[in-house]
């Protein structure tokens, strides 16, 4: 079954600091959504609002038309996994037991398989796990719970590269066998972009872009060639970045190019190339990520 998540002009402040500013977008269906933003952009805050763990000051977040906040049945459909510290004395086995009690779709057999995949011991307590192991446990709980909306808030940052790769493979396998909506926040953009169907990019609490991954990367273009010709070609377009190398110039733009414009570029010996999501992210959020 597919679900509709609506984020309707949501704002949230802490004291006088507005952390989320009128964010507005919808996601519908079984998709893997990448939530991208720099440190402090507001990703965790937005995801906590979506999970109903915090109340927005303005606007509303609904799942299938019903508000999530203070709505037990909707909150049960949304699972939020993060690296925040849990009760350190609990054993891994107890964490699995507790999660199984609260999550109606929890698959214990799959959870036990994942425990082996990620080399975790169910006998250890949380305080005995390394940072990477704690991250892996969050991944196990999130995947095995099979909640219709599963949110991973940068849990992978503690995991080493081979373990992250295992996680990415599991997400893709799960999405094929038990489709649902995953929201994965990250700034490991180049490493994770192949997972995403849709991208939500936020910056300083505001929504910068929301689009399908493919559409978004097709809109990012570099135009390289003789400086004057490049300047003329990009005039009136959204310019993200410019680099000059002697008489040559490389400009990154964002927006669709018509066939006519592509032909014009060809005639003027301008080279048009695609921009990676990582480069778009860097340029759109103003500098090195
Ligand atoms: N409970 C809180 N009280 C006060 N300020 C907060 C609180 N939680 C978050 N903030 C502030 O809100 C802003 C956004 O924080 P948030 O954790 O949502 O960002 P983020 O995009 O997840 O960052 P990162 O990638 O570094 O984890 C930051 O300036 C942070 O200091």
UniProtKB/TrEMBL annotation:
Query: One matching Pfam family, short form?
Result: ABC_tran
InterPro entries xref list = AAA+_ATPase, ABC_transporter-like_ATP-bd, ABC_transporter-like_CS, P-loop_NTPase
Looking at the keywords, is Nucleotide-binding present?
yes
Write the record's keywords in alphabetical order, separated by commas: ATP-binding, Nucleotide-binding
Q: List the Gene3D superfamilies hit by this protein, alphabetically.
A: P-loop containing nucleotide triphosphate hydrolases (3.40.50.300)
Source taxon at top rank: Bacteria
Question: Which PROSITE patterns does the UniProt record give?
Answer: ABC_TRANSPORTER_1, ABC_TRANSPORTER_2
Does Phosphoprotein show up as a keyword for this record?
no
Q: What residue stretches are annotated with the ABC transporter domain?
A: 5-229
Its transmembrane ranges are none
Q: Which GO terms describe its molecular function?
A: ATP binding; ATP hydrolysis activity
Q: What name does the UniProt record give this protein?
A: ABC transporter ATP-binding protein
